[in-house]
Write a structure and sequence with these properties.
single chain, about 425 residues, alpha/beta, 4-stranded parallel β-sheet, binds iron/sulfur cluster
Length: about 425
Amino acid sequence: MAMPDTTASDIVGRGAKDGSTMFREWFSSLTDVADSGGHAAYVFVMGSMAEILRVFDFPMVFPEINSLQTAVRRVADDYLNQAEDHGYSPDICGYVKADYAMQLRGGEHPMGKIPKPTLAVLTNACNTYIKWAEIWERMYDVPIFTLDVPSTRAAGTQSWPGDEAFERDRKYVSAQIDELIVLCEELTGKKFDIDRLREVMGNANELIRGWRQVLELNQSTPAVFNALTDGTIYLGAANAFRGSEDGGRYFTELVEEMEFKSENGIGTIQDEKHRLIFVGVPCYPIFRRFNEFFSDWGGVFVNSTYLWFASGGINLGFEYDLDRPMESLAEGVLISVREAVDAMLFQDQALIQLVDKFDIDGVVYHPIKSCRTTSAGQADTRRAFMDATDVPSLFIESDMMDKRVVSEAQLKNRIDAFFEGLNARKLRAQV
Ligand code: SF4
C-alpha cells in the first residue's frame, strides 16, 4: 500500500520513468559486454529460462526486444531491407529479419550493441523460434537448447498439479531442465548452485506477484495504466529483469503506484470514455500514433493479450515453491508457457471472462502480416467471442515491424467508424 503522506508527484509516472532508465542501463551493460568481447545467452520472451541462466550469471539477450526497438525508433526498414536483400521473404516474422541484419552489423542497434551468443535457449511456444535459432547456429556454431513444453491439447483440458497427466508433463519438462543445467555447467565451468536458484526464484516470485497485481489493478475506473503503451514498458521490465533483485523491487513499487492511482481516482488518460481490450502484437512502426487513434476518442486499453503471452504467461501468477525448487520450476515453466501459447491461440474464453470484470466496451483485434502465430486464429476466436457476448469488436490489420503495410489513413477511418458506433450505442443505452 502507498504510504499515507505520498503525493501524486512522487509516485505517478514513477514506473514508466524507472522502467525506461533501467532499460537504458541494461542495454548499455550489454554494449559493455559486447565491446569487451564477452558473450551472452540468447533467449525468447516465452520461456526465457532466466531462472536457470541467472544462476550461471549469463548476460541475457532478448532478440525480440532488440528487433522491436528498431521499429519504435523508426529504423526497422533499413534492417528489414538488408535481410530481404539476403533472400529472406517479405512476409516472414519481421523480428527475425531485423535480428539477422543486426547480426550482420556486428550487433549494432539503436540502443547500443548486443554481444554474440554463447548459447541459445528456446521453447516450442512459437515455431519461428526454432528456425530463428538455426540462423545463429549457422552463423556462430553455438549450442542451441530447445525446451519442448507440452501445450493445451484441446480447449478446457489443461491439467494441473496433482493430476496424473500434469505429473507426466512435469517430469518431461524436469528432465529437459536437468539437461539445460548440464549444458550450462559445461559452457561456464561453474557448478550448479541450488541455493542461488532459490534466491533467483524468490526474486522472480516478487516480480510475478507484482505483474499479476498490476494487471488486476486495471479493473479500476478510470484505468490506472494503458495496456498498450505503459503496459509495454512494464512488460519489457518483466522480461529483462525476471529473477533479479531489481526486477522484484521494480514491480513491488509499481504495485504501490497503481494502488495509489486507483485509491485516488487518477486515470491514465484525462477523460476515459471507452474501456478496451487489445488482442495481438502492437503496431510498433507508429506506436504512439496508433494509440492516439484510440485515446483521442477517450478509448483506453485496460488489458491486452500481448501482456499475457509476451510475458511468457506469468499473468497467471504462478509462484515458485522455494522448498522444492527444481520440481516447482518445471511446474512453473509448464503452466506459464502453456498459458502464453493459449493466450496467442485460444484467448476467446479468457476475454469473455474479462468483459464484466474490467467493464469492457470493445475489443480490438490486430492481426499482423509478419506474425502468423498470433494472427492466424484471430478471425475464429473473434467469432467465438461475438457469439458469446454483445461487446462490439474491431478487426484491423497492419504489422509490428514493417511500415510498408501500415496504412495510417485506412486505420484511422476504421477506428473512427468503430468509435462512432460505440458512442451511438452508449447514447441508445441512455434513452
Ligand atoms: S510469436 Fe510472432 S513475432 Fe514472435 S517470434 Fe513468433 S512469429 Fe515472430
